[in-house]
Amino acid sequence: MTTIPFSENIYPAASDSHLRDRFLGKRVEDLPTPVAILDERVLRRNCELMLQATKALGIGFRPHVKTHKTTQLTRLQLGPDGDGKVVVSTVREAEALIPLIKEGVVKDVLYGLPLPPSTIPRLSALLASFPSLIISVLVDHPSQLLALVDSLVPGQSWPIFIKLDMGSRRAGVDVESEAFKTLLGIIRDTELEVAGKVFLKGFYCHAGHSYAASGTNSAFKLLNAELEAGKRAVGFARTEFGLSAASSREWTISLGATPTAIAAAFVSTYPESENGRDFATAMKVYADIKVELHAGVYTMLDLQQLSTRVMPPPNELGVGDIAISILAEVVSIYPGRGENGGDEALVTAGTVGLGREPGKEWAGWGVVSNWGLDSESVSGAAKESGWIVGRISQEHGILTEKEKGAGGKLEVGKKVKIWPQHACIAGSGHGWYFVVDENDVVKDVWAEFTEDSQNYLQVEWELPRHYIPLNEVKGYAPPDPTPGRQKQHS
Ligand SMILES: Cc1ncc(COP(=O)(O)O)c(C=O)c1O
Q: Which superkingdom is the protein from (predicted)?
């Protein structure tokens, strides 16, 4: 028995109750900068639309929490009658969900990166603390599986998904590759050897390159490619496990990213979309396949997502659909210093607060909204101001005018709201979000790691080390992890 002192887990987060005491009821313009602001109405709308749309489509939905890492937004993503399935990209995100796991709102956590062996004890400790929780893991290499088998704790079982590479070459195996078949064979052997304590649940695709999509049909092409790859994988799995499509064993194909998920989810709104029709039909082909969509940044949206143009006119997404903005303050002004002869200004948000990716359609590292800069911004819909973040350093950004004179008047000390290119990266630079209402008053503070989670973690968890030594697992012979291994069928 080994004790993992949770003092080892140092979570650098201000206390959420302290933040609330200090900031609830304040107006946005009175906040320090840089801070991340969330417009609660827009968030709720984005979350509800995705829930309604996936329900109408009859498809499962597994929101990703990496964008925000907060319990509050996870709750909105799951809705009042969600099935409690989420994806995380770090163990820390899973641990941050402890208050929702305790409540039974989160029931099933998929660790969305091929399993690093060092995370197994922490995930296993989480499972030991919440025995009814399901923790699913991704694998794309036999060694991850062997590490999991090596660390098996009595009473725990682990659904696994094979991560499929959809061409982005970030993670996963190509479904047509020898490596995929080898992995499938090893999983089958292992499943038998550990009596189902580790079992293949399905296949996970994430076409991250869908961020470069342009239009609804281009997103659907990627989505259909994911579905096809998933179905091919299920076909191979049926053969490997000796099952037919009529078998009671169910396979899950988990697919999506925000551009493709938006395209899929809203297919019912666009019955004329050929790819959409194909997808809706293709999804329903086999009784033993369950399709679920996963997505994360749809909650907040950002300039990158607007650029994908997956929603066709007249419903295309606009800046009014972006729930996140970064509040920054003008530090200095440089009249006429711009390349186009326009003015420039220094603000308090740089790469750390805004992200590292410049945009194409919306140029720069962020776009300044007209909030507080023109009289219309008080009552009208959010609009661009004519200022963009044209250059960036670690803690500061340089505002430039899109065209000379387009930006309007700035003053030192003026606060500006900037829409980021990529909400997940921008948000993670801040640690907590100020959640504001339609009057720009702070209604809540959502911290990435709440006191409730921290209190829980201060209880020292005892990590059982009753690992079953390999030689004691009945009939276990370590599979040969050599790629290209020829499986012997008896
Ligand atoms: C593995 C994985 N799955 C799902 C998602 C969710 O994608 P998105 O934020 O585009 O909705 C991500 C995001 O990067 C991811 O890395």
A: Eukaryota
